[in-house]
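Q: What would this complex look like in 3D?
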Amino acid sequence: MGIDFDSTNLLAGMVGPENGLTPKEWRDASPSAANALKSFRKSYEAGDYGFPDLPFQTRLVKELQRHARQMQGSYDTVCLVGIGGSALGAWALDCALRGPHPVQKPFSKSHPRLVVLDNVDPDLVMAALEAMEPKKTVVVVIAKSGATAETVANFLLVREWLESKLGRKAAQRIVAVTSEDRGELKVLATNEGYSTFHIPGNVGGRFSVLSAVGLLPAALLGIDIAKLCRGAAEMTDACWKASLDKNIALRAALNHYLIWTGKNKPIQVAFPYSNRLWGVAFWFRQLWAESLGKARTRAGETVNIGQTPVAALGATDQHSQVQLYIEGPNDKVYTFWTVRRRSSPGRLPKQKLGVESMDYLAGQSLEKLLDAEQRSTAAALTENNRPNGCFALDRLDEAHLGAFLQLLEFKTAFVGELLNINAFDQEGVELGKRFTFGLMGRSGFDSYRERLADYEKRQNQARRMR
Amino acid sequence: MGIDFDSTNLLAGMVGPENGLTPKEWRDASPSAANALKSFRKSYEAGDYGFPDLPFQTRLVKELQRHARQMQGSYDTVCLVGIGGSALGAWALDCALRGPHPVQKPFSKSHPRLVVLDNVDPDLVMAALEAMEPKKTVVVVIAKSGATAETVANFLLVREWLESKLGRKAAQRIVAVTSEDRGELKVLATNEGYSTFHIPGNVGGRFSVLSAVGLLPAALLGIDIAKLCRGAAEMTDACWKASLDKNIALRAALNHYLIWTGKNKPIQVAFPYSNRLWGVAFWFRQLWAESLGKARTRAGETVNIGQTPVAALGATDQHSQVQLYIEGPNDKVYTFWTVRRRSSPGRLPKQKLGVESMDYLAGQSLEKLLDAEQRSTAAALTENNRPNGCFALDRLDEAHLGAFLQLLEFKTAFVGELLNINAFDQEGVELGKRFTFGLMGRSGFDSYRERLADYEKRQNQARRMR
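A: Here is my prediction, written as structure tokens for the whole assembly.
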């Protein structure tokens, strides 16, 4: 397995001392990496965080595989009902291992597709219900608490849609993934007799891709989840090492922490040069934003910190975002994600057409062109003093993907330690959720409905005063 | 037709004077809007910018419709070969008017699909070639200059793929959209006898959605491009009005310019609450980033200005990005995009399940829930002094979409005037392109290959020195 992180273009020698790290800055900061590792290890050993254990659950993997085998052949669609961390991991796995969505192989019972209901837009959901066949659909409903309004609403619809065709047998086509001991999805699953898999209490949504949350849909899609976990396990072992040379997650974390906070880069661009990694980029957006966007440090100090993650796709976004990246404010750090060997080189025809602006490409390959585009973009950014690093995966198979996901989770956790924030909560989303419960008339949320009504009254006044 | 812009939550009265506009600031700035309109009008009348004319080309619309009618029934796939502004508009139209991709109706000769080859990743392109049937595919190749490496490479592959099945008849299945008088795609199209439509010289890629660039693929997909243009034409008329009350583009432009530059918001989040508007959000990302990310003003002053556009999808990204938006740095202005009436309300089952956290939703609708989510998120942002505005479309049909696209183009052009930058060039992407040409051995680009080699030498030194 091979994954590298090249931080050369994050060095002052390449992008200047205002935007890159000097050897002294790196040396001085190195002890803080060791401390971050130590304090994270301590919390982990206290049982606070469960994601490092996920790749080692060989029994769960076998159970999930058995479950998938039992259902195999009875469905052409895996319908995932979930949102945020309950949906992004499965999409990332599907996109990376089975190809970008619009050009995946036609779906069938031997090659089922993934349909993700991760929004309550009726234009998505009602279209999905029309596009799927209840008798050929397996529904995976995922919610840790079981109270997520979007997931509940979609599940109520999907459940009725299944029952209208399958009657009481509908329950056999539903699998729930939820907490073992809290939340009402668990209650409903028990009442109705759904198969159920559990999310460990110390694993948050955005760190759950290697729990049943990501692995069950993956297994149902025919992905080799054992290999995925083996790759992640190998990376996990590396992530506990104290040596910055051997611990790629810790090295990348320290680099990005120093560039972000020391060189004032409030934006990070995750820049895969791979359509198959596009889903991972969106999964990463949640991981980075929700883990590291925080009002307060653990010590209670108000900091309102956070680095805004942006997903850009190479080479496509060279024709959309790179103008801004090269000429706009120098407020970003770029992280390329490349794949050394693609499934095919994409060999171009040898025949020349007598047209200069086309003929130089004859007999070359898409793979070579895409690589040239990435190197050229990195070079252009560097010449304009824009710091950029690069993760390179040898291949994009189960093992490398599992390792890469785990690497990014460890890296995020380490940056949380370096910032002294809690990377594992998300208090900031509660207010909006409560307003929604209030507006939808859930009992116990009347005060939020009233608070929202007051706000809308103030809005009307402000509008009139303008 | 109804499109509103609600700027109430951009007011100091709602989000405080550090983050919102006071009545005095608005009054003082209003004359600059009038000047921006005047100076843009002057450049337009001098023929510099063509996008305001596009909705009025009734003859072109008829020609495109005729062309589509002639081909109709002979294809189940429209394969678009293009990148950046040559691809994003067609995707935006398809997604908005025919539904989000993963759950579109099954494709057929009476309901063809759009496949966009906007990257040179062989994992995308080779999979697409396998997924399409040459005899049932119409290829639209779009490049203004005709020298775009990615488009040329993909076109060479697609052309060979077509010819291998159709022989000399392949040319009849290819339509080129390119400049009339420059670039070698035009030469090739003439040599090989492709049908050809032209991109006006004064219309750049990101402003070209209502030229043949967007309209031809749309017509081939069965979209009513006449209605699209009529909506855009109506909006265009409004966009030339001097009154801020009547000119929604100018009003939105002034608001965003003042918040961006005056309240220090280097990031703009385009936040559609609609899966169907997801493509438009990516189209907008290019429009905003490439038009307004600039090193210099028109007066030659170095400013390195630009507001980073971020696409977020409501309600989905409430479970991914909103934690950062609420608690992180107050460095963003949010623009919601909502749709008042969806194609279906998404009525939820009336039956209760005896589970409190689910039963309050019984008998309600997805439409109502999605609306509640958006209002709640806006309220939560506002309570945390995060400025946010909202474009509301009455419906998402051809006319509203055409109007909305045109509105965003005018808004972008007006902000360019307010900043005194050229919103219509993109010099910043040239260096990377030239490096790529150098690496791929195109003649005339040897010096760039050498410059890149020097850079990689410096990289190796820096790596060793670390």
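A: To summarize the key features: Chain A touches chain B through 154 residues (CB under 8 Å). The radius of gyration of chain A is 24 Å.
Q: Very helpful, thank you.
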